[in-house]
Amino acid sequence: MAEIGRSSISEHNMKKIAWILTLLASAAFAQTSPVDPAATPETRNLLRNLRKAAAKATLFGHQDDLAYGVDWRDVPGRSDVRDVTGEYPAVFGWDLGRIEADSPNEIDGIPFEKQRQYVKDVYARGGINTFSWHLNNPLFPEKTSWDKADSTIRHLFADPAALQRYDSWLDKIAVYFRTLTGPKGEPIPLIFRPFHEHTGSWFWWGRGHCTPEEYIRLWRHTVDYLRKEKGLHNLLIAYSTDRFTSKEDYLERYPGDDYVDIVGFDIYHRPKTPDTFVADTRRMVETLRTIGQEKKKIWAITETGLEKLPVANWWTEVLTPVIQDAGLAYVLVWRNGNPTHFYAPYPGQTSAEDFRRFAQRPDVWFGKKAAAARLYNR
Localized where (predicted)? Predict the structure, then answer.
């Protein structure tokens, strides 16, 4: 047999071999069990199977996908993503905002009763549900997440009445989460992503309004309360920054390996700024990969997107280079709120054809491949 020299192996194959070796290394270092030692079997299986899936593909997600889209709302079974690609996303984002105020609707107007059914529908189809929480300020309950007040967290732990109020909000989350059950009564596994984008300062828990120690204290209190006091064992906890400049910057407010299952970050493409989005985001992805491997966590882009999608090839020429061969468990784009605020295409939209090409990539999974992976089974 003739010796095979390096020159006879195509550059494409060399890259493919390097990619496979990288993913195998990622899998070897990944966390295999949730940080909650009492996690339900389905929750354990989800984390394990997400780790396996990340070695093959990135799951695609969309916020509020089933609830509304561009020029429609509350149409059973409808989805802008499905209208374009023929299938649902693999990951579905939801929000808990306003549950603390006993509102019948969450922050973007979805009735919690309907959201509950959407979550159950996603689970029944084999998809993944992830929750953020744009909560009001526990010191000033009428003020929203964006009504910034310095030292809120410090004052919260110094004021027993305020802390009791906050804990009562966690009680409401626990009551609601307990209603999210599967066909056998099993708790549906959920990715819970509290206090996100904290490297920015637009929320009251953001970097400019609390110290790292205060942020970590609030995080640990929240997770401990839900897990130990309320007995919720179906949660995978996601730590999610906004932009960051380095590993040290990312980890400044990290609450500890025992309080995090998934590491991620949010990043939006702002076309009015110099177009360094791909390079900057890929740099952050590589830093996140290093952190994930060192801490044995899976990693994800927990929010992203380009508002109104004016770039026709955004999916294949902008997002794909960011996520390709990166070992990401999932990437989620934001919601389709109205004709001037949307992040996934709808039929006829400028980027719809490119989105269809993106959905056909073997290394990107939408709903059908996620269902085939049986993520909740051992």
Answer: Secreted
